[in-house]
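@here heads up, posting the sequence + SMILES for the S-adenosylmethionine run so it's all in one place. Ping me if the SMILES looks off, I pulled it from an old spreadsheet.
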Amino acid sequence: MTNHSRGASKPSRPSSPHPPRRRTGPARPPVEDPARLAALETLRAVRQRDAYANLVLPQLLRERRITGRDAALATELTYGTSRAQGLLDAVIESCSDRPLSEVDGSALDALRLGAYQLLRTRIPSHAAVASTVDLVRAERGSGIAGFVNAVLRRVAAQDEAAWVDELAPDPETDPVGNLAFTHAHPRWIAQAFAEALGSREEPLKRALEADDARPAVHLVARPGEVSADELAAITGGDVAPYSPYGVHLEAGAGDPGDLEPVRERLAHVQDEGSQLCALALTRAPIEGTDDRWLDLCAGPGGKAALLAALVGLEGGELIAVEKAPHRAELVRKLTSGLPVTVHVADGLETDFVEGAFDRVLVDAPCTGLGALRRRPEARWRRQPADVGTLTKLQRELLTEALRLVRPGGVVAYVVCSPHLSETVGVVTDVAARTGAEVLDTREFFPGVPDLGEGPHVQLWPHLHGTDAMFCLVLRRPV
Ligand SMILES: C[S@@+](CC[C@H](N)C(=O)[O-])C[C@H]1O[C@@H](n2cnc3c(N)ncnc32)[C@H](O)[C@@H]1O
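bot reply: prediction finished. Complex structure tokens:
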């Protein structure tokens, strides 16, 4: 949402900021603005120590007992600022008398917070500038506050659409760059989306737009414990359109961890796309035994909990492997009471015998480009170089899964990314080398529209309301 009308003629920009003036008088008392202070401190933690906004902020809110409207404002400002960082930085840089690399880190956090309020919220400009400058003055004094004030006044001179017009690459010569800038994504990520969608135009625009919006929280009802209808009634949510166990909560509905069914392990938070991919593994027909399932990359355990509940209903068991001990512990917690054995091990070096399992899930470590909407700062942190390292591991894990599944059994390869190197690239290569049979995975997503030509399934936020999950089911030949 912009606070000025779009398409307004561009106002001329105020003159360059004055050099910072030193404040000589006594320091001002601290400001009473818990929401913006929490947002600013979270942004700082993300910048300084690579923290995750969605872990730092809830903890700060709890510690400081920030609730209600203040908590909602802090959340909106923190996540919104983090998502839009690249766009905000381009605007800030064009309003500053120095390159961003020379701007003091804490001033930059405040500038991003202020620019976000100016360009993407309905907060009146004077309030956005004054509240941000007050925070900086209380923490860092008048010199830096003066600089922040001057830059933000220049940012406020026009709305987001006008800034995009002025700063985005030309849509004629660089359509992907233009859309990436407009929807606050790094160019390489927009390019990866374009390649997966086979489009640089309307579908890409819709994908980036949906990826830039605040997503609803999805819950999964534990099979055998509670139905999606019952869970929706208890939580006030809506039954999900595709997953028989899914419920969608309203965006901004508060901390789902506080919901009684979640506390009592009748449900857990899980994107509907993740539910569908786990279910796809269970829906592929197999002949013979079907009671030993393996989750080769299980942490933190969302899919393991759903799979274990399902195999448990049939008297079977799930073996969950996770390399990182702290994530294995999360699997243990989430699956307690279910027929699961958790192994802390490298999935490439387990001591399971070949062909020990009927079904295997490889939910491989990936760039996470498909879940950027749920991880506010991730899009600016991920680098193109991450892809190569991950695809090597993905190929190895899928190959190992095909060794551990019995002849006739099935493997689901899942990543939370639409990047073609991590998706089609990996499965094509491994299927060719192992001789595994590729199944038309669309059949295991009944009722889900817009699945393309197969055989794989690529879900999208703009088409399915899910994260951009990829899934392909393969069968080990008999
Ligand atoms: C995409 S996450 C899995 C998400 C999980 N299936 C869920 O639904 O909650 C990938 C996991 O694989 C783990 N991992 C990475 N390398 C691994 C390896 N060589 N063997 C086993 N697990 C590994 C990571 O620590 C991470 O927890």
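MO: Confidence is low (pLDDT under 50) at residues 1-26.
MO: One more: Residues 274, 297-303, 321-324, 327, 346-348, 363, 365 surround S-adenosylmethionine (CB under 6 Å).
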